[in-house]
Amino acid sequence: NARSDNAIGYKGTFHGVTLGATYSFGRDAAGPAGPSATGCAGQVAGDFVACRQYTAMIAYDTSQFGLAASHDVMRGGAGALAPLNGSGYTDTRDIVAAYVKWGPARLGAGWIRRNLAAARHLQSDIVFAGGTYYATPALAFDVQGVRYLQRGERESGTNGTLVVGRANYFLSKRTTVYTSVGYLFNSAQAANPVAAGGTVGLGMNQLGVMAGIQQKF
Asked: What does pTM read for this prediction?
């Protein structure tokens, strides 16, 4: 589940420093039939830590640059979907990111580390960097590169690299027309699609093109 159910949280900003944390007593109250749900509603008798989730974040922002870091741990529980089908199993994500503004440009970069400690251990890294350049107040160009790395006995050769470019034209404060192009380079044993929900053959690269109108309400 993309949200944390049964959670308490705090977020505050003090002189440019933002602190936040959440604690969930049962991170996923939705059943397996729900959208992206895993059926991990909370503790059961004799298993106090089942389905717990806790997060923490810190960020510092100025008018010209910013830094942020976060830590997120999800525990499994009996009856939940694999791989977190036991309270001793955890899924941990650590994120660090930064950005800088330079004239009409904004540049950013970051790193995401995931550690899945379950019946089978999996570690992955996502390293990303990108930027936005305003050629005029009404025209902006975005570019981003992403490198996805998996580590494990069965994950050798399953890495991927994604490069994306996009042009945005702002018709008004609420309406934008855009077009984007993405290309994903898969390693020999990888089958990562260029867009979520897509498919691609093992070890094959993929090109994606999209155009549309965004209307903000």
From this structure: 0.88
